[in-house]
Hints:
The protein is of the alpha+beta class. It is 51% helix and 16% strand. It has 6 helices and 3 strands; from the N terminus they run H-H-E-H-H-E-E-H-H. A 3-stranded antiparallel beta sheet has the order 1-3-2. The chain is globular.
Amino acid sequence: LKSIINILIPSLVRSRIQDGKKNFSESQGEVTVIFIDIEGFDQVVQQYTGRELIELLDRVYNGFDSLCEQHGLQKIETVGKTYMACGGLKVVEKDIDNRLLGSHHSVRVTDFACSV
């Protein structure tokens, strides 16, 4: 159950739940959001078995997660063929490497997009 929650709930929400907080409406200020959609996903689905498709998506999304970490971004969620991440969240910015803070979050999101 714990691993399912880790997959379904963004880490910034999980940490608030674990801390016993019930208010999730705190303003995060200016942020940059990116949505990545897998082009031709319907055709991809037809080429793989269910297990192979899950393994493929796992590799792809784990790669995106690693890139998020490299660029100081926060994965928000994955739904089917769509991956959503964000830069500039106050709760995340305070914990990222200082060398990343030299670039505005919009630049980091753009660099992330170019590396995908």
